[in-house]
Amino acid sequence: MDDVLGQVVGPLFAIDPDGSDLIQIIGCEVERPRFSPDGTRLAFSIAMDDGTWQVATSAPDGTDLRIITHVDGLAETPDWGPDGTWLIYALGDRPCDPWPDCIETGGFQYTLWRMNADGSDQHLVGDPEGIDWEPRISPDGRDVVFSRFVLSEDLRPTIVVRNLESGTELRLPYDDEEAPEHPDWSRDGAFIVYNSYWEAGGLQQVKRVLANDATAAPVVLYGDHGQDGFKPAYSPDGSKIVFGCGAAMCLMDSDGSHVVKLVEAAGVYFNHFTWGVNPP
């Protein structure tokens, strides 16, 4: 398997899956990187001098940077279609600071948008008046899973799967005391993995749930270990999951076993993880 990437809002780093060869790729403020299906491009959000965030792509080593959106607000959390010719992302209609006050008081919205890989042919996907964020495309390109924030539920996020052709939606199950977020697909499209924040104890757990069943009980993969587990991402072959564990980056088998810590460093908070692609 190729490199694993991760970052909080700040520089972008790459590391080998055995925890070796940690290098910085991009030095400016970026977030939520995703490799194209063929591994030749990265997509991510990048902070601009005017206070907006735009979707950008680059070569895997950070060169050939291209800004492909030009919005007045926040173009964030991009993901690739399975053939690498299109992207989906979340668009905030204006900068939102502080979060979540701007949503509660100012009618701030996040909507989902689809575009070609060069930024052309922009069009809306889903609810034009919703608060939908962090879309992730299914391996077959037919569905998108994303976080939906619900004002009537105190902005608690829920996880929704939407069919891109029919527009039908499925809200995945969760406990009334938790806030599920940051979903990702298993490589066969059967499961959604995500992290869930428990308000009572403040602990974030990594969970897995069936992608097509609104009644199936989620399974805890990580989080009963005295530290947070968050932002999980499946490896290209589906056998591993990389995720945040406290302030470090961890790796486990897809069933939650064999947890290993890949990297941690004093004063550094590792976040927003994605996998490279196996070479042909």
Describe the structure.
This protein is an all-beta fold and 280 residues long. The chain has a single domain (4-275), classed as Neuraminidase, CATH 2.120.10.30. Helix content is 2%, strand content 49%. It has one helix at residues 101-106; strands at residues 4-6, 10-15, 23-35, 42-47, 53-58, 66-67, 74-80, 86-92, 110-116, 123-125, 132-137, 143-150, 156-163, 169-171, 178-185, 191-198, 204-210, 219-222, 229-234, 240-245, 248-253, 260-263, 274-275. A seven-stranded antiparallel beta sheet has the order 6-5-4-3-2-1-23, with no helix packed on it. A four-stranded antiparallel beta sheet has the order 7-8-9-10, with no helix packed on it. It has a four-stranded antiparallel beta sheet with strand order 11-12-13-14, with no helix packed on it. Strand 15 (178-185) and strand 16 (191-198) form a beta hairpin. It is globular. 42% of the residues are buried.
In which order are the strands of the major sheet placed?
6-5-4-3-2-1-23
Q: Please count the helical segments.
A: 1
Q: Could you report the average pLDDT, rounded to the nearest whole number? A: 87
Order of helices and strands: EEEEEEEEHEEEEEEEEEEEEEEE
User: What is the CATH C-level name?
Assistant: Mainly Beta
Any idea of the CATH topology? Answer: Neuraminidase
Q: What is the name of the CATH architecture?
A: 6 Propeller
Give the helix level as a range of percent.
under 10%
**Total of domains:** 1
Shape type:
globular
Structure classification: mainly beta
Computed CA radius of gyration, to the nearest angstrom: 17 Å
Main beta sheet strand tally, sense and closure: 7 strands, antiparallel
